[in-house]
Amino acid sequence: MPETFDEVIKRGFPLGTGLPLHRDALAQPAKEAEMAARQAGMRLPALAAGAPVTVRKNQAELSDVERRAFRDAITQLVNDGTYLTLTRLHMDMSHNMHGSMGETGLYRFLAWHRRYVVAFERELQRADRIQRPTATQLLGVPYWRWQDDFPDWLQGFLPANDPDNGKPPPARKEAPANIKPGSIDIDAILNHFDIQITGIQGENDYTKFTYGIEGWGKRPDGSHLNAHNQGHAWIGGIMNNTSTSPTDPMFWLHHGEIDRLWQNWRQTHPNPAPPLAGSDRIMDPWTESYDEVLDIGSLGYSYDSLSP
């Protein structure tokens, strides 16, 4: 498994050379990651009738109060140890949730990270209730539109230590703009996914879309498509680490945008699905299946806009 997204991009999609197709063959996770998985291995409770739905918003349009609430809630999670527990879930690669791990990882990428961000969002809201007990609106995970600049209100905000060494994480670098996803990439992901040639036997529209949005594909002019992988590498610092990237709060905004674009695509392509079966279709350490995370309303959230 490559350690950085720079290495992931250089290597390309590991067709036929990734980790074993069935996760049963993967190495046992580390003890701490296993403990974190047990703590998180649960279903989301069903929303009560009339319960408020979290509206995820464009980070550029958040009020100063909302921005401060987001930072304060994350700091609360860092201080009470929850943030490290959540980060360790992503460090446990037995969950097989990236295309850099092979075909099954590609198929699980979108649904696994959707469920992961929901787990974070629930903890974020718990922390926000501690910080703002009289707040009337639920705090949601903001999204970062890739064509926009890095959020100035998150500059220098890295409250969690590197879980590998307990030291402050490296500073972000914001690499050259040629790897930053932009409008041309979003158009290719949403409207020209059918041009992607994955090399996977039996590829369908879901495979091609996921191949593009994870960052393995091409633009219509044949140049490389910038997306998830390239966004991690562009931000740099610990976001460039394939395992510990959630240490950087930008992880949640980056994946919020990925989830939003997937939801946009599903409005006109609701049926294509990944060929997952058995335990591969369960988004462990949680108990929901791929099918059970498709309806974002049932997961308790919506987006203020699905417009690219």
Q: Report the span from N to C terminus.
A: 32 Å
Which CATH top level class fits? Answer: Mainly Alpha
The overall number of domains is 1
Mean pLDDT value? 92
Number of strands: 2
Structural class from helices and strands?
A: mainly alpha
| SSE run | HHEHHHHHHHE
CATH level-4 homologous superfamily: Di-copper center containing domain from catechol oxidase
Rg to the nearest angstrom? 18 Å
Beta percentage is under 5%
- Helix content range of the residues, please? 25-40%
CATH architecture: Orthogonal Bundle
Task: Identify low-pLDDT runs.
Answer: 17-31
How many helices in DSSP terms? 9
Strand order of the largest sheet: 1-2
Please render the helix and strand layout as text:
Layout: H1 5-11, H2 31-40, E1 54-56, H3 64-80, H4 82-91, H5 103-131, H6 183-191, H7 205-214, H8 228-235, H9 250-268, E2 301-303
Parallel strand pairs: 1-2
Task: Summarize the structure in words.
The protein is mainly alpha-helical. The chain has a single domain (5-12, 54-147, 173-303), classed as Di-copper center containing domain from catechol oxidase (di-copper center containing domain from catechol oxidase), CATH 1.10.1280.10. It contains 9 helices and 2 strands, in the order H-H-E-H-H-H-H-H-H-H-E. The protein has helices at residues 5-11, 31-40, 64-80, 82-91, 103-131, 183-191, 205-214, 228-235, 250-268, and strands at residues 54-56, 301-303. A two-stranded parallel sheet has the order 1-2. The longest helix has 29 residues, at 103-131. The chain is globular and about 55 Å long. Residues 17-31 have low confidence and may be disordered.
